[in-house]
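Quick illustration, no need to memorize.
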Amino acid sequence: MRTVYIQASPQSGETECIFDQNAEEPTLTDNCIKVQIKACGLSAFNLEIFQELHMHRGKYPFGREISGIVVQVGSSVTSVKVGDEVVGVLPLDTECSGCADYCLIDEYNVIIKPSRVTFSEASACLLDGIRAYTALQYLARVSAGETILVLDAVNSTGNILIQLAQLWGVKVIATATNQEEKLHLERLKPELAHVIDLSGGKKNTLLNSCLEETGGLGIDVIIDSGVSMYPIEDDETTGSPVKTLSQKEKLLPNKHELISSLAVGGRWITSQHNLQLDPPDSKVLYLKGSSVSFLFESFWTMSCGQQGRYLHIVKDIVNKVANGTLKPNISTTVKLDKVCDVYKALSTKQIGKIMMQT
């Protein structure tokens, strides 16, 4: 069996993508099904999550958003049968890669794929859809008429966030960091309320644009994909030294600017796992009655108590793809033996989703 896995260097922590053509096929257990994988959505690999959860391994499975055909079922499986076309997300503790010929997955982690949806379309929306759904419905609890700011909106998650928010009657503002991103966002239909161009690097561009677009009231919901916790320029008033930022960090919004952009009662949904709030930041949030929530979509599959909600989200996402409400933006499709060629690109900023298709 062919499979792809990630190997991490214990010294440097650097990760390497490995393509194995002679891997052993996984052994079926009572509650699992064996799926012949037809498509898998690719996302950047985050070794730190596995380390924080004490899931230390020599080889890490790669690719979690799968769709395919059931070829074998365990003795206790009742919800699916051989020949069914299914779609689902492999949990973090799986031993199987989604980038493989076959994988094992619990029957309760998959749903039946609608016939109108292709394997690639189904897989392309899974984790991004779960992430967007979690942010909008379960953390932000958005309502029609509210204003939402989507940062880094050109990536695959931003694409689904925008579509779901507009579907639920929310006014969407998005950011772009270069001309290509700006043109892409301006061409979206339905049109966005506003696209903020951050390519100039001017101070307070984000804050000024948000206040201007909302008549000074601020943004109801902000959803980021990471923030910068350090100022880009030296503090002119204190002369304190400033951390040297990488080019990637310079493109991230500053936490102080985001907090200042929030409306009274606003909600900030962040992906910055090591976010640190200074006392002045906390005071501003307190005076505004605003809140901060952390977005980690994989928690759904880490507790059996959340299984019902998780399956509801997955079903709703796939059904929306089937009826044309959600449209994934697939930028690149590669074969299984070419996955390692695009592995590094997954960690860089890009427009659209990269898919593996067998």
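The chain has eleven helices and 16 strands.
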